[in-house]
């Protein structure tokens, strides 16, 4: 199947499902530029900067220089054993473990501005924004448990989903990820699919590289609406009417 880049962007949820049946070739200006395929069929030859994978020995390997690897998944119980008492920050998505690198200054500046804007807008309201580091456990199903650490989340059910160890166990209404070169693929594909399937309602992808914000609205495990804002435009939430962010205030 061949689709153009605009169609892919507007119907990403549909093509994420379709690629499980057949590879999807993405074209732009009449040229074939990429292939979207099911994750279990994907094998990259070089490791991307700052990500980590699990090797055959089940050990975390932090990338220093490019190396060949063969993907292997670990169980949720193995992940818990690996991270217990470990001061490093990890994410666990579909059986793979990722070591999170320290954020750069641009990332932190944007996160600080966004949190301030979110904090002021939600002040006095039931929902509240929370900053990383803040682990979120999401389930695609009973046997598919994932642990992620978004940059910023908005939680509207904190009182109902706080366990006796003071950890949040619910599903955020809104999630924000600030991408980098090393996290672009994970944030725009893997995490988008995870958030959509786990019950998150709205997902903001903040792209400092292109100075853009893309907002997705999910419903019934599908992308219902999405919009990309750039230049001096104002990004507006689908869920929280009236909550807006002017891009010139954060970039």
Structure overview:
The structure is a single chain. It contains five helices and 17 strands. By secondary structure, the protein is an alpha+beta fold. It has three domains: 1-42, YefM-like domain (YefM-like fold); 43-101, no CATH class; 105-249, Alpha-Beta Complex (tt1808, chain A), CATH 3.90.1570. Strands 8-11-12-13-14-15 form a six-stranded mixed beta sheet, sandwiched between helices. It has a three-stranded mixed beta sheet with strand order 1-2-3.
Strand order, sheet with most strands = 8-11-12-13-14-15
Q: What is the fourth-level CATH superfamily of the largest domain?
A: tt1808, chain A
The number of distinct helices, counting runs of at least 4 residues, comes to 5
Mean pLDDT: 83
Share of β-strand residues: 25-35%
CATH architecture of the largest domain: Alpha-Beta Complex
Tally of separate domains? 3
Percent range for helical residues? 10-25%
Poorly predicted ranges (pLDDT <50, ≥5 residues)? 40-71
The end-to-end distance, rounded to whole angstroms, is 37 Å
Q: Tell how many strands the DSSP assignment holds.
A: 17
